[in-house]
Design goal:
The complex is a heterodimer.
Chain A: E1 2-10, H1 33-62, E2 68-72, H2 74-83, H3 85-96, E3 100-103, H4 117-135, E4 141-142, H5 151-159, E5 164-168, H6 171-174, E6 182-185, E7 192-196, H7 198-207, H8 220-229, E8 236-242, E9 246-247, E10 250-251, H9 256-270, E11 273-275, H10 278-281, E12 289-290, H11 306-309, H12 312-322, H13 325-328, H14 334-343, H15 347-350, H16 372-411
Parallel strand pairs in A: 1-2, 1-8, 1-11, 2-3, 4-5, 5-7, 6-12, 9-10
Antiparallel strand pairs in A: 6-7
Chain B: E1 2-6, H1 17-30, E2 36-41, E3 54-57, E4 67-69, H2 70-73, H3 92-97, H4 100-107, E5 109-111, H5 128-145, E6 150-154, H6 159-169, E7 173-177, H7 181-185, H8 191-203, E8 206-209, H9 212-221, E9 229-231, E10 254-259, H10 268-281, E11 285-290, H11 296-306, E12 312-316, H12 321-329, E13 332-335, H13 345-351, E14 356-359, E15 372-374, H14 379-391, H15 393-408, H16 412-430
Parallel strand pairs in B: 1-2, 1-6, 2-3, 6-7, 7-8, 8-9, 10-11, 10-13, 11-12, 13-14, 14-15
Antiparallel strand pairs in B: 4-5
Classes of the chains: A alpha/beta, B alpha/beta.
C-alpha cells in the first residue's frame, strides 16, 4: 500500500505597527492589532472553518482510513486564542477524533534554528508543551519554520527526542532521487527525513485555479490517478501546503473545497493507496542517507535561505536581534519574553527581501510595507526600543542581585 | 522706490529655503521707508501673510487677448529657447513614453479661462516649463499696468518673467541667485535650466548671490562679469522652537541629526560614514537621518552593511511640527552639504541653542564663526567634531550660547539695506 499524507501548514505573524523614531523609549507596544485581527479572522472564515468542517465530515465518513496532519505555528495559536476561539475549538474537536496529527515547530515560526541551539531547544519545548496543552497531543515529527532543514538542525532535533523531520524535496538536494521515499540524515542514521513532493503539492497549491495550465481543470479523480501512476516501488507521497490554499489562494468558487471533499474517495477507489500520518510513514526503513550541509527551505526557486537572509538589511536585522540572546537568558519578565518571541517571526525578515524573482504566488503572507526599506526601518526602530528595555531589565536584576549579595555579606 | 518682485513661492506654501528667504527679505525691505514691494507669485492661495507687502497672484491677472500666440508673444524669450518639448524634471524612461509632438501642438497656444486669466498650479509640477512661460506672459501684463523703478527676480524660475518685464518697461533687472543648477545636480546640469539661468544672468543689470560660494559659481561657470555680482547673505527670522512643540526627551542617549533631503547635494553618505566612526568609540549615541530622497535606500543599505542600524535611524519625510520635535530631541545638528548656496536651516537650529557642524562647502559657513566647519569629504574631522561636542559639555555649552548670539545678530534688515544699495546701483547703471 502506498501511503499518502496530507499536511497543512497554518501560520500568521504578529504584524508590526508603524513605529517612529519618536516613539523610541516611550511606546512599548509594537503590534498592529487591527491588521492582525482582520487577517486572522479572514483566514478563519475563508479557510480554516470551512476546511475543518470538510475534514471532520471526511473523518466521520471514512473513519480510521482518513488521516491528516497539521503544522500550526505558535503565533497562529496565540491569534486563535485572541481573535478566533472558534477555530481553536474546531481543532480540538478534530484532535479528539484521533485521526489528526500535529507536527511540532518552533513556537514563533522563528529562524532560531540557524543560530542558537539552546534558544532553539527552548522554543521547540515550549511549542511541544502547548500542543499537549491545547490538543493533548505529543508530536513526534518535526516541521521547522518554512521547512528549513540542515544536518545540524537534524542533530539538534534528535537530541530533543524527535526521530523524524519533514522538509522540502528540493531538486538540488535530490538530483535523480525521488522524494517519495523515507531517507535518513547522513550524520545520524536514526534521524529520518521525510520529503515533500513539491510538484504534486504545487499542482493543488499553485496550478489548481490557473486556466492557462495544461491540466486545467484538475479533478479529484485525475489527481488520484496521478498518485496511483507513480512508480510502484515508491512508498509514500507527502502533499504539504499552506492551509490557505483552500479558500484564499484558490477561491472557494474555484471548487477547491469540493476537490478536498472528494479526494479521499477518489484515492480509495483507485486502490493500492491509503492515507497515513507522517509518524506512520517515518516508521518505514530509510532507503538511503541525505546530506544537507547548507540549509534548505520550501521557499522560492532556490529553496534556500535567501528569502530571509539574502541581503545586508536582513542579515543586519537578524544579527542584531540574536545578539540579544545572552541578555534574554537572564530575563523572566513575561511581557518582554512575549515581545522577544513575536519579533523573531520569520516574516519580518521576509518583508525586507529585495529578491527580484521571489515567487509572489508563494508569498503566503503579503508584505504590509511599501518597500523592503520601509520594512527594515520600522523593524529596526522597534528592535532598538526592545533592546533598550532588555538592557534596562537586565541591569535592574543585576543590581538587585548585587544588593542581596551585599546585604548577606554585611549581615554575616 | 517701487520694486516689482517675482518669486515662485511664498510662505506657508514653500518646499525649501527659497520661499523662506523671499519672505524674510521682503519683510526686511518693508521696514525701509523708501522701498515698496509688489510681490508676484504664480498662485496666491489666500493664507499668506500680506500684512506688510502686496502680493499678486499671476493667476488673478487677466491677460490682454483671449488666445495668445506663444512663440510670437515671447519674442524676447526666443533667444533663451524655452524649449517646450523638453520636460524639466523627468527621467529618460518617462520621456520616451511622452508624446512630444502632440504636446507641442497642444501647447503652442495658451488658452485663458473665461475670466481672461491663466491658470497656475503653483509649486513644481510636471509642466514646470510651461508654467514658467505662462508666468512670463503674465509678467508682461503686470509690467504694463504697474509703476515701478526696479525689477527683482528670485531664482531661475522667474528669470524669464523678469526679463520680459525689463524688456517692456525698460526698468533695470536685479536677479537673485539662491541656487544654481550646479548645486542641485552636482555638476551635471540640465541644459535647459542652464540656458535660462545664463540668459537671465546676462540680461540682468545686477546679480545678487547668497554667498561668495555661489558668486564664484556665477562668475566661473556662467561667465558673468564679476563687477555686477554682489553677495548679500541671508538672515533668519527671529524665533526658534516654541515650547509647545518641545517633545519630552525619553531617551538617555545623545542624538545627532541630519535633517534634509537625502540627495547627492546634501552629502548624506558622509554623515553615515562619520556616524560609523563615532559609534566605534561611543555607545550612548544615536544618529538620525530625517527626510527622504533618491539616495535614501542606498543609505539604508550602507548603514546595514556597516552594522550600525541599531543606532542609526531613518525617519522618512517629516512634516510640520515633527521637524521641530526632531530638532528638539537633537544634541548636534550636522549639515555635510556637498554644495549648499546658503543653508538657512543650521541658523534655525542655532537659534534654538543647538550646536551645528556644517561643511565648508556651504554658503552659511562664510558668515558663521561659532559653528564647527569641516570639509564634507573629511569624515574623520566630522566624526571628531561630533565626538567632541557630545563628550565635552563645555564645548557643547560654548557653541550653543555663542552660536545663538551670533545668529541673533543676523537680521533681514541688514540684508535689506544691502539689497537696496544694489537697487540704486542698478538704477544708476540703467540710466
Amino acid at each position: 500500500m502506498k501511503k499518502i499524507a496530507l499536511c497543512f501548514n497554518i501560520h500568521q505573524p504578529f504584524r508590526l505597527k508603524r513605529y517612529r523614531f519618536f516613539d523610541l523609549g516611550s511606546d512599548h507596544y509594537y503590534y498592529d492589532d487591527y491588521s492582525n485581527e482582520y487577517n486572522m479572522r479572514r483566514l478563519a472564515d475563508q479557510t480554516i472553518l470551512p476546511g475543518n468542517k470538510i475534514l471532520s465530515d471526511l473523518i466521520a465518513a471514512h473513519k480510521d482510513r482518513f488521516r491528516v496532519s497539521f503544522s500550526i505555528s505558535g503565533t497562529a495559536l496565540d491569534q486563535f486564542e485572541l481573535y478566533a476561539p472558534d477555530v481553536l475549538e474546531s481543532f480540538q474537536q478534530l484532535a479528539a477524533t484521533g485521526c489528526v496529527e500535529f507536527l511540532c515547530d518552533t513556537d514563533s515560526c522563528s529562524l532560531v534554528s540557524l543560530t542558537d541551539r539552546d534558544e532553539f531547544a527552548d522554543q521547540v519545548k515550549r511549542q511541544k508543551a502547548r500542543l499537549k496543552n491545547y490538543f493533548n497531543y505529543d508530536p513526534e515529527v518535526f516541521c521547522n519554520t518554512q521547512m528549513i532543514y540542515s544536518d545540524q538542525i537534524g542533530d539538534w532535533l534528535y537530541d530533543l527526542g524527535f526521530q523524524a523531520v519533514l522538509t522540502e524535496g528540493a531538486r538540488h538536494l535530490l538530483g535523480w532521487k525521488s522524494p517519495n521515499f523515507v531517507y535518513c540524515s547522513s550524520t545520524n542514521p536514526r534521524m529520518k527525513i521525510l520529503l515533500r513532493n513539491y510538484l504534486l503539492s504545487d499542482d493543488i497549491g499553485l496550478n489548481f485555479s490557473e486556466p492557462q495550465w495544461s491540466e486545467y481543470p484538475l479533478t479529484a479523480d485525475k489527481f488520484a490517478s496521478w498518485l496511483r501512476a507513480s512508480d510502484p516501488k515508491e512508498e509514500d507521497i507527502i502533499l504539504a501546503m499552506d492551509y490557505n490554499v483552500f479558500g484564499e489562494k484558490n477561491s472557494a468558487s474555484s471548487g477547491i473545497f469540493e476537490f478536498l471533499r472528494y479526494l479521499p474517495s477518489a484515492v480509495f477507489s483507485m486502490g493500492g493507496m491509503e492515507f497515513s500520518s507522517l509518524k506512520n510513514i517515518s516508521g518505514q526503513l530509510p532507503v538511503g542517507p541525505l546530506s544537507v550541509n547548507d540549509p534548505i527551505s520550501w521557499v522560492d526557486e532556490e529553496r534556500d535561505l535567501t528569502a530571509w537572509l539574502g541581503n545586508e538589511l536582513q542579515q543586519e536585522a537578524f544579527q542584531k536581534l540574536y545578539s540579544l540572546i545572552p541578555y534574554m537568558k537572564k530575563i523572566k519578565d513575561p511581557v518582554i519574553r512575549l515581545d522577544w518571541r513575536y519579533l523573531q517571526t520569520s516574516n519580518h525578515f521576509r518583508f525586507m527581501s529585495t529578491k527580484y524573482f521571489s515567487t509572489e504566488k508563494l508569498f503566503s503572507i503579503p508584505s504590509p510595507y511599501e518597500s523592503p526599506y520601509d520594512a527594515f526601518i520600522n523593524y529596526m526602530n522597534i528592535l532598538s526600543d526592545f533592546t533598550i528595555r532588555v538592557k534596562a531589565a537586565v541591569n535592574a536584576t543585576m543590581q538587585k542581585k548585587t544588593k542581596k549579595t551585599y546585604e548577606k555579606t554585611v549581615h554575616s | 522706490m517701487k520694486v516689482l518682485m517675482f518669486g515662485w513661492e511664498f510662505p506657508p506654501h514653500i518646499s525649501g529655503g527659497l520661499g523662506t528667504a523671499c519672505y524674510g527679505l521682503t519683510r526686511g525691505l518693508s521696514g525701509l521707508s523708501d522701498v515698496d514691494v509688489l510681490f508676484v507669485v504664480p498662485k496666491v492661495f489666500g493664507d499668506e501673510d500680506q500684512s506688510q507687502i502686496r502680493l499678486i497672484g499671476a493667476d488673478h491677472v487677466p491677460v490682454l487677448s483671449k488666445e495668445v500666440h506663444m512663440e510670437g508673444f515671447l519674442k524676447s524669450l526666443e533667444k533663451i529657447e524655452v524649449g517646450v518639448n523638453i520636460y524639466p524634471y523627468i527621467d529618460p524612461e518617462t520621456f520616451k513614453k511622452f508624446p512630444v509632438s502632440q504636446w507641442l501642438e497642444n501647447n503652442r497656444y495658451i488658452t485663458t479661462n473665461t475670466l481672461g486669466t491663466l491658470d497656475f498650479k503653483g509649486g513644481y509640477g510636471a509642466d514646470l516649463l510651461q508654467e514658467i512661460s505662462k508666468y512670463a506672459i503674465v509678467a508682461s501684463t503686470i509690467a504694463y499696468e504697474n509703476e515701478f523703478d526696479v525689477i527683482h527676480a528670485h531664482d531661475w524660475l522667474t528669470y524669464p518673467a523678469g526679463m520680459v518685464a525689463r524688456e517692456i518697461s525698460g526698468k533695470p533687472l536685479v536677479i537673485h541667485v539662491h541656487a544654481t543648477d550646479f548645486d542641485r545636480s552636482g555638476g551635471e546640469v540640465n541644459p535647459v535650466v542652464f540656458d535660462i539661468e545664463k540668459s537671465g544672468m546676462e540680461a540682468a543689470d545686477q546679480i545678487i548671490t547668497v554667498s561668495n560660494l555661489t558668486r564664484n559659481i556665477v562668475i566661473e561657470k556662467y561667465g558673468i562679469d564679476p563687477e555686477k555680482v554682489i553677495t548679500v547673505y541671508n538672515a533668519v527670522e527671529p524665533g526658534g522652537i516654541k515650547d509647545d512643540v518641545a517633545a519630552e526627551r525619553v531617551l538617555s542617549d545623545k542624538i545627532v541629526t541630519f535633517l534634509g533631503r537625502i540627495t547627492m547635494q546634501k552629502g548624506p553618505e558622509y554623515f553615515v560614514e562619520a556616524a560609523n566612526l563615532v559609534l566605534k568609540k561611543m555607545s550612548d549615541v544615536r544618529f538620525v537621518m530625517a527626510g527622504s530622497g533618491d539616495m535614501m535606500s542606498k543609505m539604508i543599505r550602507r548603514a546595514a552593511r556597516l552594522g550600525i542600524t541599531d543606532r542609526f535611524h531613518f525617519t522618512g519625510f517629516l512634516r510640520g511640527e515633527e521637524v521641530y520635535k526632531m530638532l528638539y530631541m537633537s544634541d548636534v545638528y550636522v549639515m555635510p552639504s556637498v554644495s549648499e548656496p546658503f543653508g538657512i536651516s543650521p541658523l534655525e537650529a542655532m537659534q534654538s541653542n543647538f550646536p551645528v557642524i556644517i561643511s565648508n562647502q556651504s554658503g552659511v559657513a562664510e558668515v558663521l564663526r561659532h559653528a564647527i566647519k569641516v570639509d564634507f569629504w573629511d569624515t574623520h574631522a566630522m566624526a571628531d567634531a561630533i565626538y567632541g561636542i557630545l563628550s565635552y559639555p563645555a564645548l557643547h555649552k560654548f557653541f550653543s550660547v555663542h552660536g545663538k548670539d551670533e545668529v541673533d545678530a543676523l537680521k533681514w534688515e541688514n540684508s535689506a539695506y544691502q539689497v537696496r544699495e544694489v537697487y540704486y546701483k542698478a538704477i544708476g547703471i540703467r540710466k
